[in-house]
Design brief:
Strand content: 15-25%
Shape: globular
Largest sheet: 6 strands, parallel
Helix content: 40-55%
Number of strands: 12
Number of helices: 13
Length: 380
Amino acid sequence: MTRGRPERDLVVFAYAYAASERDAVARVIGELASELRRRGRNVSVIGIPAESIVSAGGNGLEKIRRLRSELSFIFRLLGVVVRKGHRLQAFVSVDVPSGLPLVGLFARRLSRGRVRDVAWVMDLYRLAGPSKNILTRARTSVELIALRTTAEIVTIGSCMASRIERLAHRPADVIPLWHRQMERQARFRQSGEPLRLLYSGSARELHPLQGLIAAVADRPGVELLISGSGAEVDRARDWLAVRPASNITIGGFVPETELQRSYGDADLHVVALSEEMTGTCVPSKVYAAMSAGRGVFHLGSASGQAALDVMRADAGVVVPTGDVDSIGRALDSLLADSSAVARQGENASSFFDGHRTVSAGADAWELVLYGDGLTTKVVS
């Protein structure tokens, strides 16, 4: 190293909503950054300040404010690259705003190829299909251009890697999701005690719950608790207002301080992803459940990464979202086999400990950021 010249050791993770407390992507980035720092790495996570975040949706004025905040964030990142480019080891762009990987391209070219430029793709929702909205189509075009110009793409599931290859015409490495270690509470369901299902978190249109609700409603031996908010939760309330069911309860978000107790009170955790959205994301709820030692009742396509992990680990069941009969048969099977739920929880714990810890994710990311890259395109 030249005397007086600092070593290239800084890794920047750039995600617009890194400061959002309930953002699942922000949680994943934060856990990785903390683990890398624990290993002595120099890591910075940059996002829009929490007080300046503009929520998605709203009227036209709110959307303009959100766009302005995202553009301001990109210009701020360009400034960081110019000021700290001599220290940069790698620049990792995460999902949003559209075109964010182009900042990584700028960092790479400014350094004459010395900066590692990585696009970390955790959400392909906007690339799920054609849109009639002109602004959405424009953003999609920018995203595809950015993905095609970045030096390396890392995503979180094989299904997403396949979609990226179809859209961007280039391969992507797969480093699966992880979750922090949750406290594991033993739960022994007594004879005659109901099978308790929990859906916890946001439930948007891409998380359909109607099939499950119809199957559970007034079914003997089963209880369903939905803790969260979103369009699907509102639909559930409307459905239950017309067809009340004493074994289905809807509540709000569980405070972080009570989350582990809530997880432990359930026998199985419900995860839902619309079949049409397979390959656009990987539900992190699966790994939260596994971390807590609970099996998963997965609603969605069997070809998604989370569903594949559930089946590979024998840590739950996978059924189509809208097939009420299949959901009912799966529930009846679990009720008939008193040992199945406990066995699935044990398998979930074993799979998590062996494959989906933060440490395992950090091992793979160190190869991308500091080593010669992954030895396989898909980390198991």
